[in-house]
Amino acid sequence: MRTEPKRILILANADSGAGRGLRLAERARVKLTDAGHEVEMLAPRAFTDDGAGGSPDLVVVSGGDGSIHHALPRLIELGSPLYHLPAGTENLVARSFSMTSDPRRLLGAIERGRDMKIDLGTANGRPFAIMLSAGPDAGVIHRLAAKREGTITKLSYAGPVLREAVSPRLVRASVSVDGRDAVGPEKRAILLIANLRRYGAGLDPALLASPHDGKLDMVWLPAKNAPKALGWAIACRLRQHGRLPASVFDTGSSMSVSFAEMPAMLQADGEPLPSPDGGLLTIETLPGALTLRVPPEHND
Length: 300
Fold this sequence. Notes:
This protein is of the alpha+beta class.
């Protein structure tokens, strides 16, 4: 039984996956049009313009997590549900909510799926869906962005990862969580503030993070040099980092990070962020700020 025709906006990122984002978007457009839905395609950058795309019943992002990141302010404003057609390198939103590149699953989500509200975080007012971090992974993102020309693949990360492994961008900062002191700036460290538990390369430092609890999870892994940072990466991959006494975990609805050294390398959802003015980063939770259209295959 078909649902009533819906107005669907597909944001097709031609730079994702060496053109895969555009190809997936076109396949989805054909499938949804054949099912009787009204479909419009738009470049993600155009979506940020006021009024672009109107007020659709559903926004489909065909691209990577970065494409979703840049669309968040407008998605919050519209309140339209989001479906992720994964075409990036990690696709953590899609993987977290059982979304795939198969247009049949997208159609199933429209006809038999359900809307689900999830929390977002903000960093000095800029929303993020997955995580924010300061440390070597942010260094990799900044190194990649400085050299990026056109599309990227997982192989594109090889050079930045090797350079970061030799000279990691570790941070010194004080972090407060809901007004209480969580960690101080005495040691260099890797800092992660997570909304989802999934992370790149299967490292997943915040295994207990939930996008439904109105809170963000803070992970602090002290590392004074490259071998220590590599050790934490291995421990995260093996799911053993929580057992090591040096690690610090906390949760809260608001956090404040004061960097003792600048510039601070930051990234959110795999996108580079500028160093905060004055070295102060204010992080807040936006409970239930983003609506997802999840397929019937997804179980919480």
